[in-house]
From TrEMBL:
The organism of origin for this protein: Rotaria socialis
Protein name per the record: dihydropyrimidinase
The keyword Metal-binding appears for this protein: yes
UniProt subunit comment: Homotetramer.
Family: Belongs to the metallo-dependent hydrolases superfamily. Hydantoinase/dihydropyrimidinase family.
């Protein structure tokens, strides 16, 4: 029956090891793992011989039905989670982003309303802090203590819309630290970008290439470094979203080497596509790739970011899935500044990372699980409920065929958008079955996802894993301060001698 499932004959892969074992799931929870399991009669069996059984992917970064730049992203919580499942992802973390008139709490309620009715898999939420005042501080506290949110994103870009100043960022990070939450940052120097955009206009550059040319890599690296610096001063853990360049990744790497609690998130796009498309002859093709920070115009950034994932300098992967169709991208037909920013990836991420990471020999299968699922679960405090195949964990798994092949195309994908930035990429290594809450939600190209069946993950209140790391650092810091204290005698002879 549907509430009992036995996955037989596969190799169970976690981030710390691999074992030949069967997996028995009942009522949505993994109940047994091993060989020769005794299971109730009538249990449905899936043959996974020769295949890998891995924890379902966790996409740390989506924007489903986001009102943004005068329109709304086309993948909603239904098409978005269906596409996720078709790609082997079973948990998505979306961003609550309040509109100008909205409080954080109102925006949170709206996101829950949009998502709960539609999601086909479990989901969690981060929240974006786009203004700073006492009420926002209170709302952050409420979200953390009552609504299951423990991660807050600030924007250093989108000047005049979402961008915060350094002192405001300092306040948000301090608040995060007080609440035991993780600070997240969109790191790009928005003020300088606005000036460079004006320069492009003066030069008569109005096409999508202007998007890339007005957002140089240095502005991403500078802002990344600035965010890391502010995080250090506020002693707050930091998660840098959508790491798009080598030099930004290096800032994260350097800080980690010095022991700071910083995480970097490359996305499917930065690992598997590049910025040469901004110069494509076809406007629509070029505009389809417009996202911020932009894809970098060289073939070496993707492989470099993959190397940093492999050596642990970068931690988790998302997609920043935020899709707009041709007619929406056309809002910026005469001015690249008005092209809605965002690309696809929620369905493609696992296959792209396998193809570019495992097939190339950079990642082993355990590292693949780490960077697509387990690390994200740890950082955002949903581990081992998510991110692990273990007894007691949720029955969210993907059965992976390392030999299966396909060519990515918008013509065949499940994402609602009419373009795919990975169009034509030959993938080797694909999900063949996706199990969501113990039920087969995708099998051999067939989706059987249930609308509204996903649950909101409100277990994320205190960022335990991250703060364990941070508190160790704090102890050492306080010890050092104590050691530096000088014992002064106010009546020392030398002082008195002056008179
Ligand atoms: O271009 C992007 N990244 N669109 C989504 C919003 C954001 O900045 O994450
Ligand atoms: Zn962003
Ligand atoms: Zn084209
Ligand atoms: Zn984003």
């Amino acid at each position: 029956s549907q509430h009992r499932l036995l996955i037989k004959g596969g190799r169970v892969v976690n981030d710390d090891g691999t074992q030949l074992a069967d997996v028995f799931i009942e009522e949505g929870i993994i109940k047994q793992i091993g060989l020769n399991l005794v299971v109730p009669g009538g249990t449905k069996t899936i043959d996974a011989t020769g295949k890998l059984v891995m924890p379902g992917g966790i996409d740390t970064h989506t924007h489903f039905e986001l009102p943004f730049m005068g329109t709304k992203s086309v993948d909603d919580f239904l098409t978005g989670t269906r596409a996720a499942i078709a790609g082997g992802t079973t948990t998505i973390l979306d961003f609550v982003i309040p509109s100008k008139e909205q409080s954080l709490l109102e925006a949170y309620a709206q996101w829950r309303e949009r998502a709960d009715a539609k999601v086909c898999c479990d989901y969690g939420l981060h929240a974006a802090v786009t203004t700073w005042n006492e009420q926002v501080a209170k709302d952050m506290e409420t979200l953390t203590k009552e609504k299951g949110i423990n991660s807050f994103k600030v924007f250093m870009a989108y000047k005049g819309v979402f961008m915060l100043q350094d002192d405001e960022i300092f306040q948000v990070f301090s608040k995060c630290r007080e609440l035991g939450a993780i600070a997240m940052v969109h790191a790009e120097n928005g003020s300088v970008i606005t000036e460079l955009e004006k320069e492009m206009s003066t030069l008569g550059i109005t096409g999508p290439e202007g998007h890339l040319l007005s957002r140089p890599e240095k502005l991403e690296a500078e802002a990344t470094n600035r965010a890391i610096t502010i995080a250090e001063q506020t002693r707050c853990p930091l998660y840098v979203v959508h790491v798009m360049s080598k030099t930004a990744a290096e800032k994260v790497t350097e800080a980690r080497l010095k022991g700071q609690v910083v995480f970097g998130e490359p996305i499917a796009a930065s690992l598997g596509a590049d910025g040469s498309h901004y110069f494509h002859k076809c406007w629509r093709h070029a505009a389809a790739h417009v996202m911020s920070p932009p894809l970098r115009d060289d073939a070496t950034t993707g492989p470099y970011l993959m190397d940093l994932l492999a050596n642990g300098s970068l931690s988790a992967t998302g997609t920043d899935h935020c899709t707009f169709n041709a007619n929406q991208k056309a809002l910026g037909k005469d001015d690249f500044r008005k092209i809605p920013n965002g690309v696809n990836g929620v369905e493609d991420r696992l296959a792209v990372i396998w193809t570019k990471g495992v097939e190339t020999g950079k990642l082993d299968v355990n590292q693949f699980v780490a960077v697509t699922s387990a690390n994200a679960a740890r950082i955002f405090n949903i581990y081992p409920k998510k991110g692990r195949i273990s007894v007691g964990s949720d029955g969210d798994c993907v059965i992976w065929d390392p030999e299966a092949k396909k060519t990515i195309s918008a013509a065949t994908h499940n994402q609602a958008c009419d373009f795919n930035i990975f169009e034509g990429l030959h993938c080797k290594g694909l999900p063949i079955v996706t199990i969501v809450a113990g039920k087969i939600a995708y099998e051999n190209g067939q989706l059987n996802a249930v609308q509204g069946s996903g649950k909101y993950l409100d277990t994320t209140c205190f960022a335990e894993y991250v703060y364990q790391k941070l508190n160790k650092r704090e102890q050492i810091r306080e010890q050092k301060i104590q050691e530096q204290k000088i014992e002064r005698d106010p009546y020392a002879g030398e002082v008195l001698d002056i008179s």
